Amino acid sequence: MRAEVTSAGDGIKRGFSQAADARAAVAELRDQIHQSDMAVVLFFCSPAFDLEELGRAMRDAFPDTLTLGCSTAGEITPMGYCTGSLTGLSMSGDICHADAVYIDQLSEFAFSHGLDSVRQGLARMAETEGPDFTQGTFAMLMIDGMSSAEDSVLSALHAGLGEIPLFGGSAGDDLNFRRTWVYRDGRFHSDMAALVLVHTPFPFRVFKTQHFVGSDTKMVITGADPLRRIVTEINAEPAGREFARMLGMEVAELTPMIFATHPVVVRVGGADYVRSIQKVNPDGSLSFFCAIDEGLVLSVASTVDPYANLAQVFEDIRAEIGPPQLIIGCECVLRSLEMERTQMKQRMSDLLIANNVVGFNTYGEQFNAMHVNQTFTGVALGARRQ
User: Fold this and answer.
1) What is the mean pLDDT of each successive set of 10 residues along the chain, which is 386 residues long?
2) Which of 93, 231, 269, 382 is buried most deeply by CB count within 10 Å?
3) Distance, CA of 179 to CA of 191 (rounded, Å)
4) Domain FIST: where (predicted)?
5) Is 4 exposed, middle or buried (0-12, 13-18, 19+ CB in 10 A)?
6) What are the Cα distances from residue 66, in Å, to 299, 377, 386?
7) DSSP 8-state class, residue 284
8) How many Å apart are CA 188 and CA 54, to the nearest integer?
């Protein structure tokens, strides 16, 4: 299926391709988003592509433009939710100035290295945009979703960014949980993160939402391996068995779909943040998508209407900055699974289309200093200059 070229506004173009061949998909995307004076290209791709070929094709298609991207667990395109596709956007120099910070070797990540890297990016931005550039700047993070490094990286980035708001997503691999990829300079890399800094004269809002809240059903993590994000005991009982008991189920019934609809919530600073379970391991332990530790008190989440929740967020955005000419969105893959189970996916897809959303389904989301799950994070860009 070929999408029409979609201009979200002057200086912004969005597009996508469902071609199976990597070069054909890139050529189709380029036809839709190429424009003069491109400041940045962002793209999100299915891991089903030949990523070596896709990387070379992206480099050839946008040789002189800052280009960042990552693999996904599903794509959010100008035509709504897709899988097996390539989607992306371009922003012109009239819309923004962009700079990138890359952090490799996440398995050996050091706080000082992350802090120094982001400070260098900010210094470059200040040279071109002046010392007060932070007022009109936001940051987007794309990071290896199998690295388990999100919390450490966010700590360093948040310390360096200061008042600059950040959102982002952890790269996916279509729920295979083997290897995820971030693009840089014509190649895809694992064990890497890419941060793009965007300075714009247009109003914007970085946001987060989820349709889960805490309940009175509490549990305490009494055994855990924090480095591997594995919980071995809940309430001093084997983790998988105890969690299943709390849901009134057997361990064998704990599937990805069950985890998608029954996450847990931690309360921090008066706000609820979702902590999602990835899988039950053969030894009965539970692997989580984000940081977990012994002594943490969690509650089984209660749900609210996800469509009404997201629609309200978009209404609030319109009230604050006007109709968005673009929203870059990072949505947890578990939300997508839940939409499928509840037969709500087409309705949600229509809502995303109506609000000019481009993005991807993630293995975790970032919002300022927090790494979260089952959340929709993003930035909305207004249409009127400040």
Assistant:
1) 51 97 98 96 98 98 98 98 98 96 96 96 95 94 96 96 97 95 98 98 96 86 93 96 94 88 83 85 92 90 90 97 97 91 94 98 94 94 84
2) 231
3) 9
4) 37-238
5) exposed
6) 43, 23, 25
7) S
8) 9
Query: What count of Cα atoms within 13 Å lies in the side-chain half-sphere of residue 363?
Result: 32
- C-beta atoms surrounding 201 within 10 Å: 12
The dihedrals phi and psi of 4, each to the nearest 5 degrees, come to -70, 150
pLDDT of residue 290: 83
- State how far the Cα of 280 lies from the Cα of 243, in Å rounded to an integer: 10
User: DSSP alpha helices (H): ranges in 13-148?
Assistant: 22-33, 51-61, 111-129
Output the DSSP codes for 48-116.
TS-HHHHHHHHHHHSTTSEEEEEE-SSEEETTEEESS-EEEEEEETTT-EEEEEEEE-GGG--HHHHHH
Domain spans of the chain? 6-209+306-382, 212-303
What CA dihedral angle connects 240, 241, 245 and 251, to 10 degrees? 80
Q: What is the pLDDT of residue 275?
A: 85
pTM: 0.89
Q: What is the pLDDT of residue 1?
A: 43
Residue 166: which H helix or E strand, with range? strand 166-170
Q: Do 182 and 67 contact (CB within 8 A), yes or no?
A: no
Q: Alpha-carbon dihedral of residues 362, 368, 371, 373, nearest 10 degrees?
A: -50
CA dihedral 87, 91, 96, 97 (to 10 degrees): 80
